[in-house]
Amino acid sequence: MKHGINTPEPPYYSVIFTSQRTDVDDGYVGLNDAVYMKASMLDGFLGMESFRDENGYGASITYWKTLEDIDGWSKNMLHQGAKELGKKKFYEHYKVRICKVEKDYEFNLENENG
Amino acid sequence: MKHGINTPEPPYYSVIFTSQRTDVDDGYVGLNDAVYMKASMLDGFLGMESFRDENGYGASITYWKTLEDIDGWSKNMLHQGAKELGKKKFYEHYKVRICKVEKDYEFNLENENG
Asked: Is B18 in contact with A49 (Cβ distance < 8 A)?
């Protein structure tokens, strides 16, 4: 999974998806990959970062240009089908937070030493 | 690390801190724990979730009532000292995104079956 996303100057938007997985693995990785590949092809997609720990708790953060782009993703057919399957099989719990990124800054060690 | 934070109705704020660790472990875990224990005692702290994968890439997401609370955390002395140490020893790269959570929703499997 790609990390360390280059996003444009704020404001832009993020969707923080945190989840606790069930122990059902049947098709999960393939479905997850397909959903995020689809997301990356949609208008306004800026990037994503994804994490899951050894206890099945994870976060996927996607970045988008506008709230309308997030709405478009939310209504995407593949995404909607995946959500239904996710509720039936893959997730004990999830929470979605839709956020406006108001400010950002970063640090790169190589720039410090350069 | 605690997960699955109960936050109040939006709007509230989040700080998404993503980072790539160096391979220096000397004191990192203790410092990190101390910083987040301090954060949890500050005005407006609502919770935090933290993830790190096997390649040293991670995210810590903290939730706060207001932007002023985030500013207070940013100016905390322990936090400032930790940031300096982090740049010298612990991080190849980090990015901080300050966000307004505008909307949220969740799913709990036990409620579905209840």
From this structure: yes
C-alpha triplet B23, B29, B32: angle, nearest 5°: 110
Tens of pLDDT, residue by residue over A41-86, are 999 999 999 988 888 899 999 999 999 999 999 999 999 999 999 9
Q: Do A101 and B96 touch (CB under 8 A)?
A: no
Domain range list for chain A: 12-104
Q: Does position B114 have pLDDT exceeding 70, yes or no?
A: no
Instruction: Please judge whether B106 and A87 are an interchain contact, meaning their C-beta atoms are less than 8 angstroms apart.
Output: no
Reduced to 3 states (helix: H, G, I; strand: E, B; else coil), residue A102 is strand
Domain B12-104 sits in CATH 3.40.50.2000: no
Contact with chain B for residue A26, Cβ under 8 A: no
